[in-house]
Amino acid sequence: MTPLENAIEQLDGRIAAIRAQLKVNPPKMAALQSLIQGSVLTMVNEGPLALCQTFLGKSGEVQDEEKLNILRQRVQEFIRVSGFAIALNKSIITAEYLPLQTV
């Protein structure tokens, strides 16, 4: 597996995990927040931003254009589902956790 294919697979996994949490009814605040922090506010691994910088920020390097387009599509989908997750989290958050919502 190439690094580009690995990046696509990582995003696919995150997208699937976020979608799964969005389907939980009623939503589980702790699980949703943990997933958002691990996906959007990454502190341990570099996350989607690093994938974008690594593969989509390069100019002049010959890359597999078809796989780059797949990565672009996955990034767009990741942003979309992450937005839904953040909005859902905001709608269910309790007052004691509200200050953390602004981070």
Task: Map the helices and strands.
Elements: H1 3-23, H2 29-39, H3 47-56, H4 65-92, H5 98-101
Written description of the protein model:
This protein has helices at 3-23, 29-39, 47-56, 65-92, 98-101. It is an all-alpha fold. The longest helix is centred in the last third of the chain and has 28 residues, at 65-92. The model has no long low-confidence stretch (mean pLDDT 83).
**How much β-strand is present in the residues?**
under 5%
CA-based shape: elongated
Give me the Rg, rounded. Answer: 15 Å
Topology as H/E string?
A: HHHHH
In brief:
With 103 residues, the protein is mainly alpha-helical.
Which short descriptors sum up this protein?
mainly alpha; 72% helix
